Amino acid sequence: MESGLFLAEGNKLVASILPFFECELLIACPSWMAMQENLNVKELIAVEEEEVKKASLLKNPQEVIAVFVQPQHPFRKEALENELSLLLDGIQDPGNLGTIIRLADWFGIKNIVCSPDTVDVYNPKSVQASMGGIAKVQVFYESLPELLMELKHLPIYGAFLEGNDIYREKLSDKGIIVMGNEGNGIRPETEKEISNRLYIPNYPSPIESIESTESLNVAVAAAIICAEFRRQQIYSQ
Amino acid sequence: MESGLFLAEGNKLVASILPFFECELLIACPSWMAMQENLNVKELIAVEEEEVKKASLLKNPQEVIAVFVQPQHPFRKEALENELSLLLDGIQDPGNLGTIIRLADWFGIKNIVCSPDTVDVYNPKSVQASMGGIAKVQVFYESLPELLMELKHLPIYGAFLEGNDIYREKLSDKGIIVMGNEGNGIRPETEKEISNRLYIPNYPSPIESIESTESLNVAVAAAIICAEFRRQQIYSQ
C-alpha cells in the first residue's frame, strides 16, 4: 500500500508477526483474540467469521485480518559485510518473493536487497508467502549494479546453466547470492559484477546446452543454493 | 476441466508441450505461428495480440493460448519399483504442484503420485507453474496409504521437523519421497507408512521444538530433498 501500511491475514501468520510490527487495525473473531497473550493494537474490531470472510483476499479466509505499519529500516551496506545475503534482480511474482523471504529466514539470511523493479515486499501475496519471514528478514530496495561495485571484495554468486557445479565449489560463509527475474534471469549490468557462476546439476545428465527448456523456479533455485551454502558451512569443516 | 481437456498459455510453455500432447485448439498470433516448426493441431485460429489478451487468464498475456487433450496414463505401481518417486499428500496450491512437477523434471523423477484430494494437475496454474514439466513427468491420483502398504519393501521418506538430519543419512537411489499438505503436513494414515523421517537443517541452529513457527514452503522442501538425493547419487560414490 502507498499508505505505508500493509495487510496480513490468517490465524498463524498474524499471530506470528504481531509482536514485531506496529498494528494499526485488527479485525478478528473473539475465538482468535482469546488465544492471544497480548493484543497490542491501535484499533481492535471483534467480528464474526462471516464478516472476516467478506473482507478477506484469501481463498480460504480464517479468523483475522490485520493492518500493520511498514517499518522503515535505513539500508547500510556494512550489514552485508560479514554475512551471507540475497540480492534479487527483478523478481516479479509476489509469491516467489515471499517464498524466498521464508527460506532466507530458515537459513539464517538476515538481509535481502531487491532491485527497484522487484515486486513490493508488502504486497499481500508476498506477506502471505513469507509466513512470518518478513518479521525476521530485512528487505531493502537498492540499485544492484552500484551496490555490487561497492562490495567487489566479497564473493558474488549467481546461478547460470553454464556455471560451475555448486557441489564442486568451496562456497564462502560470507558473500552475496544474486537471483534473477523469472523469465529473463539476471540483468547484464548486474551479471557483470558476478564473480562466481554456479550451476545446480540436474539429473541424470548435466544440461548440454543453455537452449534447454528445463529450468527451476527462482525460489526453488534459491533454496537449493542456500541449503548447499549452509550444508558446507555446517558439515564440511 | 471436466471435459478431459486442459488449457496452456504463453509462447515458451505452449511451444515446449505442443509436441507431447494432442492439441484441440490453438489461438495464436501469426508472429508466434511463424516461429513453430510444425503445428499439428485440430483447429488453428490466427488472431491479433489484443484478442489473445482478452481470452487470457494471465497477468501478462503473450501470443498464444492452446487447449490440449488430457492424456490417460494407466497407473502401474511397478513403475515406482526401481526409481525415485514423489508422493504428494493433499497439496492444495496449484502453483506448488506445478513447481514440484517442474523440479521433478529437473531431477529426473518420472512419476508423481498424488492423494485424491490433491489439486488437479490440469488446473491452468499448475500447468503454468510446471513450465513444460507436465509433458515429461507423469502425475497419478491414488490412495496413498494403500499404495504405500504395497511398497513397504522400498524406503519411504518424509520430511519432519523432528526427523533425522538429511545430510547425515545415506539416501537410497530408489524409493518414495512423501510431501504433505501446506498447512497440515502429511496425514497420519500416510505418515505411519513412512520408514525414514528426514529433517532439513535450518541455520544457525537446528530447531529445538516443532512448535517453531519457522518452516519451508512444500515445493522448496521437496527441491532441497530431491537435490540432496541426487547429489549423494552423483558425488558420494
Write the layout of secondary structure elements.
2 copies of one chain form a homodimer.
Chain A: E1 5-9, H1 11-17, E2 23-28, H2 30-34, E3 41-46, H3 49-55, E4 64-69, E5 84-89, H4 94-106, E6 111-114, H5 124-130, E7 138-141, H6 144-150, E8 156-165, E9 175-180, H7 188-191, E10 196-199, H8 218-235
Helix pairs in contact in A: 4-5, 4-8
Keywords:
homodimer, about 240 residues, alpha/beta, six-stranded parallel β-sheet, four-stranded mixed β-sheet, 8 helices, about 25% strand
Q: What does the model show?
A:
Two copies of one chain form a homodimer. Chain A is built from eight helices and ten strands. With 237 residues, chain A is α/β, with parallel strands linked by helices. In chain A, the strands form two sheets. In chain A, strands 7-6-5-9-8-10 form a six-stranded parallel beta sheet, covered by helices on one side. Chain A starts with a strand and ends with a helix. The relative contact order of chain A is 0.14. The mean pLDDT of chain A is 92. At the A-B interface, helix 4 and helix 8 of A face helix 4 and helix 8 of B.
Instruction: Encode the helix/strand succession of chain A as letters.
Output: EHEHEHEEHEHEHEEHEH
What overall form of chain A do the CA principal axes indicate?
elongated
Q: Name the quaternary structure.
A: homodimer
Structural class of chain A: alpha/beta
Are there runs of chain A of 5+ residues with pLDDT below 50, and where?
A: none
Number of strands of chain A: 10
